[in-house]
Write a structure and sequence with these properties.
The protein is of the alpha/beta class. It has 10 helices and 14 strands. Strands 4-1-9-10-11-12-13-14 form an 8-stranded mixed β-sheet, sandwiched between helices. Helix 5 links the parallel strand 9 and strand 10. Helix 1 crosses helix 8 and helix 9 packs across helix 10. Adenosine-5'-diphosphate binds next to strand 13, helix 8 and helix 9.
Length: 311
């Protein structure tokens, strides 16, 4: 894929501060478990996808809500360092940034609590003020970690100005945003596909049926990610499985976010769908071999090299 002048990608979504505790075992209610190992990283689906798109070579504008806490300057600086346009970030005084408390044990089982904080300060009115960002973009990328009313407004603006959207219906906390033709490319994992369709997704045939059912609700393209199996694509021109790259996973956090951010870059570059999905599979395969959310996200050169060198 030749690097070329490309349209801007508008990512609208969440930013979180992740507080991670690695423990021998998870505590019971009322219990204290000691000897944990602590780390603090940055995540949030919106932020992860913005970083993934920028590192894959996308020109990204990120619209998000941050609090006025000690983490905000670092988050902003990190986005800037990745080349992301940050001048439309809303900093909400008197609020904390979104945060996630993550505990995981030796078996990799986890307990996660999320406080949306300033992510929920992103209102439809704020989106109206950012309409020019959507209008000027070659693609709008969104997820479900900001208020549903804000998401619906952004989709309306994108429809009004003809900006194609890549919608990652994650997490499926409720179904207050209907799947529709406003979502040109809908990306979901197995659990999300089941929640949205009521259909099981444990075999390739079931994945195909669920993708078809979602596509019947309006999206032109449905991409159903299947972890180590890759991604099933349903579209007018191409339907089928695009297999994953074989790697030894270390930490699958943010695999889906890397997939979405990188898929957006390939689509904006005009790469045909199966090849774009293969590119996204390659980037997310690299990310699962590394720890953490944003630290695991690969640069374009690494994705290209991995694709060249891996059968
Ligand atoms: P999510 O993180 O949203 O649950 P998936 O687990 O389906 O999403 O992963 C998204 C993509 O990441 C997959 O389509 C695949 O390309 C890649 N991926 C995830 N797990 C693996 C793995 N174990 N080996 C190779 N690629 C993987």
């Amino acid at each position: 894929m030749a690097a070329q002048e490309q349209a801007r990608i508008a990512v609208i979504g969440s930013s979180n501060v992740d507080f991670i505790m690695q423990l021998e075992r998870l505590p019971d209610v009322g219990e204290t478990v000691t000897e944990g190992v602590f780390s603090q990283t940055f995540g949030g689906k919106g932020a992860n996808q913005a970083v993934a798109a920028a590192r894959a070579g996308g020109k990204v504008t990120f619209v998000t809500g941050l609090g006025d806490d000690v983490y905000t300057p670092t988050m902003r600086e990190n986005f800037r360092r990745d080349g992301i346009e940050t001048n439309r970030i809303l900093v909400q005084s008197g609020m904390a940034s979104g945060s996630a408390l993550i505990m995981f044990d030796r078996q990799g089982r986890n307990c996660i609590a999320v406080a949306p904080g300033a992510n929920y300060a992103l209102t439809p009115a704020h989106l109206d003020a950012c309409a020019d960002v959507i209008r000027g973009a070659g693609m709008l990328v969104m997820q479900m970690e900001i208020p549903s009313s804000t998401i619906r407004r952004a989709l309306e603006i994108a429809e009004e100005c003809g900006t194609p959207t890549l919608f990652n219906y994650a997490p499926v906390r409720d179904q207050s945003v209907p799947v529709s033709a406003q979502m040109h490319t809908l990306v979901v994992n197995e659990n999300e596909a089941t929640a949205l369709t009521g259909l099981p997704v444990s075999t390739p045939e079931e994945a195909a049926s669920a993708a078809r059912a979602l596509r019947a609700q309006g999206p032109r393209t449905v991409v159903l990610t299947l972890g180590s199996a890759g991604a099933y694509v349903a579209s007018a021109d191409f339907s089928g499985l695009v297999p994953a790259f074989v790697v030894t996973p270390v930490d699958t956090t943010a695999a889906g976010d890397v997939f979405c951010g990188v898929l957006a870059v390939a689509l904006v570059e005009g790469v045909p769908l199966p090849e774009a999905v293969r590119f996204a599979n390659a980037a997310s395969a690299i990310s699962v071999t590394r720890s953490g959310a944003q630290p695991s996200i690969p640069m374009r050169a690494a994705i290209d090299a991995f694709k060249r060198e891996t059968p």
